[in-house]
Amino acid sequence: xxxxxxxxxxxxxxxxxxxxxxxxxxxxxxxxxxxxxxxxxxxxxxxxxxxxxxxxxxxxxxxxxxxxxxxxxxxxxxxxxxxxxxxxxxxxxxxxxxxxxxxxxxxxxxxxxxxxxxxxxxxxxxxxxxxxxxxxxxxxxxxxxxxxxxxx
Length: 152
Prior knowledge:
Layout: H1 2-15, E1 24-26, H2 32-43, E2 49-53, H3 54-59, E3 70-74, E4 80-93, H4 99-104, H5 112-128, E5 139-150
Parallel strand pairs: 1-3
Antiparallel strand pairs: 2-5, 3-4, 4-5
């Protein structure tokens, strides 16, 4: 994990920041393939948003992200790819997510239908691992972000 800490420290030095390393995580289902694909979409500027089930944050007693907060995006090998900064955080029922937000997620054909189908599968699997039932009105933590640094 030193490579993650060193990457953050280098970023802080370049931008005159003094801050503890932010959370570092991989997008997706934890698989190497999905982690690599989604990290690349972020680095390319195609993927500019993500969402998570609020109930999982609650169960795991995990703080919700806040606007202005940084995060380090990892690839499928748990190596840092880029640093993002959250620009907008909203809690929205899944069935009220907009087409515009779905497109910002940058996946598939960028359509709402693709987003809905993929996220239904993802959340059904994730919630079942906590013995929770899926419903289309679950609250999602919808996070928009910008890439502030790409690891070279």
